[in-house]
Design brief:
Number of helices: 6
InterPro entries: SAM-dependent_MTases_sf
CATH superfamily: Vaccinia Virus protein VP39
Strand content: 25-35%
Radius of gyration: 15 Å
Structural class: alpha/beta
Shape: globular
CATH topology: Rossmann fold
Protein name: SAM-dependent methyltransferase
Length: about 180
C-alpha cells in the first residue's frame, strides 16, 4: 500500500469532519469533496462550495440534489475572497475547516494561492484548520513560507508530502492575552 496525498486527505477528513461543522470547500472543482463533506457535517452542519466554472457549480448542485444533500450546501460560482466569505458568512460567523485544493491545477499561481489563503484566514475560528492541497511542485517549502507570512496571530503547521502532491495544514490558535 503506497502513500498518496489523496489518501492522506481522505483519512484526515474522515477523522476531522464532524457533525454540526461549518466547512468551506474553497476550490471545489468537480464537487467530489463537497459531497463527501456534506455527508459528514450532518443535517445541522453546512458546507460552502466555491467553483471557478459555472458548469462545475451546476453539476455539483445537481449531484447534491440527487443525493439529498442540497440543504447542507451553498454552491457559489467564483473564487474565495474576503468579500464572498463575508457575504455568505457575515462578520461574526467563523469556519471550522477550509479546503483550498489546487491538486488538479496544471499551473500553480503562488500569488493566487497567497491571496486566497490570506482572504480565508480571518474567517477561521480559533482551532479552525486550513488545508492547502498542491500537486507535485518544485520547492513546496517556498510556497509554505510565502503563505505563512500573511497570517496574523499564532498558528501551527504540518505538512504531508507524497509522490502525487503535498498538503499543508494550518491550525489557527487563540491569541495569548
Amino acid at each position: 500500500m503506497a502513500f498518496s496525498n489523496e489518501r492522506f486527505l481522505r483519512n484526515f477528513l474522515e477523522n476531522e469532519v464532524q457533525t454540526n461543522m461549518l466547512v468551506v470547500d474553497g476550490r471545489a472543482g468537480n464537487g467530489q469533496k463537497t459531497r463527501f463533506l456534506a455527508s459528514h457535517v450532518g443535517a445541522e452542519g453546512m458546507v460552502l462550495s466555491f467553483h471557478e466554472e459555472r458548469e462545475e457549480a451546476n453539476k455539483t448542485a445537481a449531484s447534491l440534489f440527487m443525493a439529498g444533500l442540497q440543504d447542507r450546501v451553498t454552491v457559489e460560482n467564483g473564487v474565495v475572497t474576503a468579500a464572498t466569505l463575508r457575504q455568505e458568512l457575515g462578520r461574526l460567523t467563523k469556519v471550522d475547516l477550509l479546503l483550498l485544493d489546487y491538486s488538479q491545477n496544471k499551473a500553480i499561481d503562488r500569488h493566487a494561492i497567497n491571496d486566497e489563503c490570506e482572504s480565508a484566514w480571518p474567517f477561521l475560528k480559533d482551532g479552525g484548520q486550513l488545508l492547502v492541497i498542491l500537486p507535485v511542485v518544485e520547492q513546496p517549502e517556498a510556497i509554505l513560507r510565502s503563505i505563512k507570512t500573511d497570517f496574523d496571530g499564532p498558528f501551527s503547521t504540518a505538512t504531508f508530502s507524497a509522490e502525487d502532491g503535498t498538503t499543508f495544514l494550518f491550525e489557527k490558535q487563540a491569541d495569548a492575552e
